[in-house]
Amino acid sequence: MSKSIKMLAAFGFVAVVSACTSGQTEEEFVVVEPEPISVEPVYTGKYK
What we know:
This protein is mainly α. The protein contains one helix and no strands.
C-alpha cells in the first residue's frame, strides 16, 4: 500500500508540474511610435 501511495503522489506531482510549465509562454510586445496629433506652426512671416 505504501508503494502505491508513493507512486500516486509522484504521478500527481509530475502532472501538476507539467501542467504549470506548459502554460508559460513569452508574450511578444510590439512598440508603435505614436504620430504627433498636430504639427506645430512654423513662423513664415508677418502676413503669410
